[in-house]
Amino acid sequence: MTIRVAVLGAAGRMGATTCAAVEAADGLELVARLDVGDDIAALAGTADVAVDFTVPDATEANVHALLDAGVHAVVGTTGWDDDALARVREHAAGTPGVGVMIAPNFALSAVLAMRFAELAAPLFASVEVVEMHHPRKVDAPSGTAIHTARGVAAARAAAGAPAMPDATESDPRGARGADYDGVHVHAVRLDGLVAHEQIFLSNPGELLTIRTDSFDRSSFMPGVLLAVRGVARHPGLSVGLDAYLDL
Amino acid sequence: MTIRVAVLGAAGRMGATTCAAVEAADGLELVARLDVGDDIAALAGTADVAVDFTVPDATEANVHALLDAGVHAVVGTTGWDDDALARVREHAAGTPGVGVMIAPNFALSAVLAMRFAELAAPLFASVEVVEMHHPRKVDAPSGTAIHTARGVAAARAAAGAPAMPDATESDPRGARGADYDGVHVHAVRLDGLVAHEQIFLSNPGELLTIRTDSFDRSSFMPGVLLAVRGVARHPGLSVGLDAYLDL
Amino acid sequence: MTIRVAVLGAAGRMGATTCAAVEAADGLELVARLDVGDDIAALAGTADVAVDFTVPDATEANVHALLDAGVHAVVGTTGWDDDALARVREHAAGTPGVGVMIAPNFALSAVLAMRFAELAAPLFASVEVVEMHHPRKVDAPSGTAIHTARGVAAARAAAGAPAMPDATESDPRGARGADYDGVHVHAVRLDGLVAHEQIFLSNPGELLTIRTDSFDRSSFMPGVLLAVRGVARHPGLSVGLDAYLDL
Amino acid sequence: MTIRVAVLGAAGRMGATTCAAVEAADGLELVARLDVGDDIAALAGTADVAVDFTVPDATEANVHALLDAGVHAVVGTTGWDDDALARVREHAAGTPGVGVMIAPNFALSAVLAMRFAELAAPLFASVEVVEMHHPRKVDAPSGTAIHTARGVAAARAAAGAPAMPDATESDPRGARGADYDGVHVHAVRLDGLVAHEQIFLSNPGELLTIRTDSFDRSSFMPGVLLAVRGVARHPGLSVGLDAYLDL
Question: Which of A70, A145, B43, C7 is most enclosed, with most CB atoms within 10 A?
Fold first, then answer.
């Protein structure tokens, strides 16, 4: 059965890319392109799923309107804090059968890399993260790298893994990078790159490297389509695409 | 409580490395080093776990003797076929509470790389495997690479993933490598290397690379120790170290 | 002094990208955009350098016309054979002071990777090449990979390097890939990639890896601009961008 | 003609590895193994080349004694400063025909990686260095990484290359690593590794990666043998193995 899809923020770059991906996908039909001022309530009964790539100021109100309309929501807009998530979780609890997926990153390779790093982390003596991005990025390290490091640290703590060995005594200029919960994170800036991350996990005699390269925003589309196809089977609020992956 | 460990094939290279690793490990005690002609039955009551790094001709008899003695077995010796595994499985069913782990590869990074590749494979448009080994290796590709490719192919088939795109029309010298169940495998031979594998998984706009490097035989020890510590909790026959990893 | 640049094939994808790059570059001025039917002779005295990204059927005639007009030529169009190069070389000898650069690849990272591989090849026991491209490519391996392998083989032969070690006895499905002059070449096809190459050089205990990634056609522009700025200093025919790099 | 080789510090780890490598090499004969207290003057007329892997306190005196004895010297001992090098240079000027090679690193892959990075650096918009070592290392970053960064910076300055783009405004924990002459250097510490370095060079649309992996001290031997074979053809003091490579 065809899934009817609406796109909110359809005129933006991510929204337009999503519209094209939905139109090209088997089993999906693009039924509405909405932008600022368009009426979300009108989607009730005409769209099964709505994808939100709007702006931080608008996205929470959009999700509440979609819940009221009984339309499943897939959200890639950033800017969600714990309070906003809690409000959506409560609202969703009152509208049984409607699913909401809010994902900070739809790139499957990035989502899997983080999850695999967490799974593997307790089994290795050392884990470090190197992220590489274009030089127009104003913050270092990337949110994804911080999220990866914290996931690694939490998994190691839960498993009782010991602290990582590090005999560094002299590092006058800070070459060892940033420390997030005991996991070192390094940020590289290179003109021409987009978004890349390497996670190194080692034991005596062996090295496991998990690397993810995102070359352009089309890399988000397989993850968006996976969420669109899965959201009806996951009522209530889900945060992070890995909630739909059986890992 | 300390786990008492015996090593079979203690004079061989892997056996000697195992003895050293057991002696250095917290919570383990090396209680016996056995070689050809030594009496396995005498381990009953004196050893909790025996590690077998002997030879293909001896290993199955060793495991049956360990089951008779009520000693858990961790086996790294190669040469097991389906019939031999079936005989051990049946024997183990008659000795409840005794565990047997037979693993073709104890390198955690290699075991995890294979498992992660299987988990990720259905989510990507293309998957290929490049293995790199020392040039004294007589077979190509490596058993691990074939195992990886077949696991990837089976996971894709189970999920209904389509065939991978490949428009190659002209390849006069076979640069596209070997095809195992639709997954291409490439074997590189480089003097100075040991055992390495790269698995590439891609979608439009993104690439996930899982790479494992084994530099020397010490790389097997974390996996051997993990099996020694876990075998008592897994009665019956287990094949492959991933059976003890919650992935 | 500003260099006046004309672009032939200006309406094509590479031509349009070149026009934009010239307009954005310091010290260069775009003075003409030519396409099929436009008069090259008219460039005499008005353009210093012409960049040709046209089609194989037209490019040789364009270069002869540019030589007649006294305009330096930078050519990225493919399809040149030895006879055509010989005719241009002879014509250029009769028009002293005019330079012609014909380059099969303007991506600096690819040009440098090939050159570095040649320089290093005699110093290593083993060298192999793995190229990775999008799966719409109809030929395997890539021309760049063949060129790399042949350069490596020639450099080793000139230095008297021994054959590479390889004990492979069993390779039933061709995992060892293609053999070009004794150098193994492997072709990987991955949806979402563009043009990538890894060259592995190893000795006992060490591995040198040279990797080049081209993400899109903008990667050719630094090389095109380098050629535009250098062609006046290199009269006569030069083939391959490395002729302008002091390596 | 066979080259007669003496090894100073023959009982140390590097010295013993050198003795074995000389004995296994074509065209070389090991004629003396010297340790503390042995008489260097006695090598006059019996050895052509001496390899010094002793200790920082002894190496300079050894080299002066070798110059007096007319024996070519290949030195891998660390601890040389500019004054000591100046004294050797002056002494060597007075003993024509005798060569001295003092190299901080004999791993060919590391030497070539540094040289290639210098050659390529002016042609790219961005260059960064990531080194990876075992966690028992007390200083960060490695001397090789600092040397690489400074070579890159000097090459860019000489060519008039602009500063690298970097819009970082927020980096609260120092993820951007160390800055050496404008080149960022990152130090990763991983249990099980030995000595590894990645140099990233990028332009819009392309990335060149030069990676060197040293797995164990045998990686120094091809460079030591190259120096032993070349030192007679290079009278006077040479510093750095790249002086013998035509790059």
Answer: C7
Q: Is the pLDDT of residue A246 over 80?
A: no
pTM (2 decimals)? 0.92
Please identify which of the residues A64, A91, A134, A137 carries the catalytic annotation. Answer: A137
User: Residues A178, A182, A184, A185: is their CA dihedral positive or negative?
Assistant: negative
- Cβ-based neighbours of A69, under 8 Å, separated by 6 or more: A40, A41, A43, A44
Strands B99-102 and B236-239: parallel
Does residue A234 sit in helix, strand or coil? Answer: coil
Q: Report yes or no: D53 and D104 within 8 Å, Cβ to Cβ.
A: no
Residue in chain A lying closest to C194 (CA): A215
Domains and CATH numbers, chain B: 3-102+218-244 (3.40.50.720), 108-215 (3.30.360.10)
Give the Cα separation of B103 and B196 in Å (integer).
18
pLDDT at D216 over 90: no
Interface of B with D (CB under 8 A): 192, 194, 215, 218-219
Q: Which of D64, D72, D91, D133 is catalytic?
A: D133
pLDDT of residue B63: 98
B54 min Cα distance to partner chain A (Å): 22
Tokens of C177: 């890939």
D43-56: per-residue pLDDT in tens?
999 999 999 999 99
> Can you tell me the distance from the alpha carbon of B123 to that of D64, in angstroms, rounded to the nearest whole number?
66
Angle at D97 between CA D93 and CA D99, to 5 degrees: 75
Q: What is the DSSP string of C9-69?
A: TTTSHHHHHHHHHHHHSTTEEEEEEE-TT--GGGGTTT-SEEEE---HHHHHHHHHHHHHH
- Write out pLDDT tens, residues B50-91: 999 999 999 999 999 999 999 999 999 988 999 999 999 999
pLDDT at C78: 87
CB within 8 Å of A153: residues ≥ 6 apart: A121, A180, A181, A182, A183
Q: What value of ipTM does the predicted structure carry?
A: 0.90
Pick from C76, C101, C107, C77: which is nearest to C89 by CA? C101
Token representation of residue D195:
């000595």
Q: Which residues of B touch A116 (CB under 8 A)?
A: 112, 116, 119-120, 210
Q: What share of chain C is helix, strand, coil (3-state, %, to 5)?
A: 40, 25, 35
Contact B72, B232 (CB under 8 A): yes
CA angle C83, C87, C91 (to 5 degrees): 170
User: Closest by alpha carbon to B191, among D218, D19, D105, D190?
Assistant: D218
Distance CA C55, CA C51 (A): 13
Q: Which residues, 6+ apart, have CB-to-CB distance to D7 below 8 Å?
A: D15, D18, D19, D22, D30, D32, D33, D34, D50, D51, D53
Subunits close to B (at least 3 CB pairs below 8 A): A, C, D
Torsion angle in degrees (nearest 10) through CA of A96, A97, A102, A107: 160
Q: Is D137 a catalytic residue?
A: yes
Helix (H) or strand (E) run with residue A67 in it? helix A56-69
Distance from CA of A194 to the nearest CA of D (A): 10
| Paired residues of A30 in beta bridges | A5
CB A169 to CB D139 under 8 A? Answer: yes
Neighbours of B70 (CB within 10 A): 14
Smallest CA-to-CA distance from A173 within C195, D146, C120 is with D146
Residue type, D170: S
Structure tokens at B8: 């079979």
In whole angstroms, what is the distance from residue B119 CA to residue A116 CA?
A: 10
* Distances D232 to B26, D60, D84, D246 between C-alpha atoms, Å: 55, 19, 22, 16
